[in-house]
Structures are given as C-alpha cells and as structure tokens.
Amino acid sequence: MRVVSWNVNGLRSAHGKGFLPWLSGARAQVVALQEVRARADQLPNEVRTPPRWKTHFSSAERPGYSGVGLFSRDEPDAVETRLGIPEMDVEGRLQLARFGKLTVANVYFPNGNGKDRDLSRIPFKLSFYRRLFAELEKPLRDGGRVLVVGDFNTAHQDIDLARPRENRETSGFRPEEREELDRWLRAGWVDSFRHFHKGGGHYSWWSQRFGVREKNIGWRIDYVLASPGAMAYVKRAAIHPDVSGSDHCPVSVDLDSAVR
Q1: pTM of the predicted model, to two decimals?
Q2: Cα separations in angstroms, 229 against 62, 68, 144, 232, 234
Q3: Residues annotated as binding site?
C-alpha cells in the first residue's frame, strides 16, 4: 500500500504540468496534496473526479490560499477537517482520513513568515503544530496506526537543507521550529525517510530561482511521520525529486497492506 504526499503549489497549475499522468502512474492507494489553492468547484472535472479515484477537498476561506486534497482508491471511512480552533480551521490545512485501522493525516503546516517575511507567523505555526499534536496524542499512546503526511514547513536538522549555516535565522530552520519537530520525535513519532536513509543531499523543496533545483540546493520539509503502530508496517520510504510540476516533489511510504 503506497501513500504519497505532494505540495503541488496550486493544483490547477500542476494539472497543466502533467498531474493526471503522474497520478495514474504513481502506483499509490492514497495521494495527499497540499497547497491546492482552489475550491473543489474551481477544479476541472477531470481533476476533481478522475476515474477510479475517490476525492475529498478542504479549502481555505481566503481565495487562492492553502487548501488540501485527498485522492484515494477506496472511499475513506471518515474524514475530519477541523481542529476546533476557528483561526486554524479557516485556512483549510487538515484532512484526517480513516481507512480501516489506518489514519492518514494530510497536513499543510503553516509557514512562519508573515507578508513581509518578518517571522510574525511563527507563533501561529507553533500553535498549529501543538494543537495537532494534542489531537493525535491519544491514538499515538494507544498504539494506533497513524501517518502524518505533508509539508511541515520545517527542516529538522543540518542534514535536511543544503545551506544550514546561512539559514539559522530563516523561518523553517529556526531553533523553536526545529525543537517542535524534536518534541514529536521524542514522543514516539518516526521520521520514516530518516529511518531508511541516513545520508544527506535528499531534499523535497527548492527555491524557484534559476538553477537552484538543478544544483540541488534544497530543503527537506515534506515528511511522512509514522506512529510506532504504523511504522511496524512501513517497508520503505522515498523522496521523488525527478517529479516536476511544483517547487516541491512528492514523498512516499510503502506499507504492508495488512496495516488496514
């Protein structure tokens, strides 16, 4: 069972760059998208309801902003999109989808930068992390099978970005953001990619400045975190930098189908 996560940086834009052919060849059972930036009724029919896929979208109240989408081969048993905090819920950042015994949390974590790249959203970002952590604490503690997938907007360690020294004061690599990821891992969440791949040079986001992606000057900010109950079924984890169409690339895990 393959679960894929991808920040598409606008699904309509990604559609024009080959999203549907990629989807049909991804060999996935669940595809979680972030930064959809469109309501479902603004998407072309072939994207909103592609053959043999079930879809679910949660959009922000603000037009053209944020939003998450879920494509799955089977209908989820349930999908929850709210954390119960109005200022968080209006941004369309969450889908908690249950497939039998497996829960997939598709999450577009906030960026810490304000409009003027002034770090003013870091408190909101950290509050969002903590509220979701609290929401998932009981299933984690009870041995539940949970994957938290998405754009975390944080590089965890020096190895997770090409130029750590130059970015220590940049949102996405500041100490308080990295410490929040540390807290998740200390609680038992497993960074599935790092479980299998210890080396550097693996990134999931690159600036759109000319030549940056070609030189692989990137950040690893897209993750699949697995609860111990889910990690027992994870066979491999991957980043797919060869997939274009966004400034991010997809990340994935393959699980034993018995996880459900």
Answers
A1: 0.98
A2: 36, 25, 5, 6, 10
A3: 7, 35, 151, 153, 247-248
**Residues annotated in a binding site for Mg(2+):** 7, 35, 151, 153, 247-248
B/e letters for 113-139, b = 16+ CB within 10 Å, e = fewer, are beeeeeeebbebbbebbeebbebbeeb
Which residue is catalytic, options 108, 203, 223, 233? 108
Does the annotation mark 158 as catalytic? no
Residue pLDDT, tens place only, 164-191: 999 999 999 999 999 999 999 999 999 9
- Given 129, 151, 160, 202, the catalytic residue: 151
Q: Which fold has domain 73-259?
A: Deoxyribonuclease I; Chain A (3.60.10)
d(CA 144, CA 165) in angstroms, rounded, equals 38
Residues in the chain predicted with pLDDT less than 50, given as ranges, are: none
Q: Is 129 a catalytic residue?
A: no
- Report the C-alpha gap between 212 and 234 in whole angstroms: 32
Tokens 């990629």 -> residue: 22
Q: Which residue has the tokens 């603000």?
A: 62
pLDDT digits (tens, 9 = 90+) for 91-121: 999 999 999 999 999 999 999 998 877 899 9
108 a catalytic residue: yes
Provide CB contacts within 8 A for 253, sequence distance 6+. Answer: 2, 3, 147, 192, 224, 226, 234, 236, 237, 238
Q: Which of 252, 221, 249, 220 has the alpha carbon at shortest distance from 234?
A: 252
Q: Could you tell me which of 66, 48, 160 has the C-alpha nearest to residue 106?
A: 66
